[in-house]
């Protein structure tokens, strides 16, 4: 496999990079989450919030492939401070 041994269970930043890599390699604007192999009741039980969000867009998490794009999970940067948390801003 081209990806981390933990696949979709890897850390978010690793999964985000893998999604970005796949999108670049395929020239697609997203990848797809496919939970169709799981029982509908399990999907609703395990993922109640995202199931509701998907439903609001006419998507059924247990039947449809859900478009996924990487998101920013970390704030990089900020305001430089000294040892007393003072800035020049």
UniProtKB/TrEMBL annotation:
Pathway: Cofactor biosynthesis; NAD(+) biosynthesis; iminoaspartate from L-aspartate (oxidase route): step 1/1
Family annotation (Pfam families): FAD_binding_2
Assigned keywords, A-Z: FAD, Flavoprotein, Oxidoreductase, Pyridine nucleotide biosynthesis
InterPro entries noted in UniProt: FAD-dep_OxRdtase_2_FAD-bd (IPR003953), NadB (IPR005288), Succ_DH/fumarate_Rdtase_cat_sf (IPR027477)
Highest rank taxon of the organism: Bacteria
Domain FAD-dependent oxidoreductase 2 FAD-binding stretches: 8-87
EC number per UniProt: 1.4.3.16
Alphabetical list of SUPFAM superfamilies matching this protein: Succinate dehydrogenase/fumarate reductase flavoprotein, catalytic domain (SSF56425)
GO terms assigned for molecular function: L-aspartate oxidase activity
A GO biological-process term: 'de novo' NAD+ biosynthetic process from L-aspartate
Catalytically driven reaction(s): L-aspartate + O2 = iminosuccinate + H2O2
Cofactor(s) this protein requires: FAD
Similarity section: Belongs to the FAD-dependent oxidoreductase 2 family. NadB subfamily.
PANTHER family in the cross-refs: L-ASPARTATE OXIDASE, L-ASPARTATE OXIDASE, CHLOROPLASTIC
The name this protein goes by in its record: L-aspartate oxidase
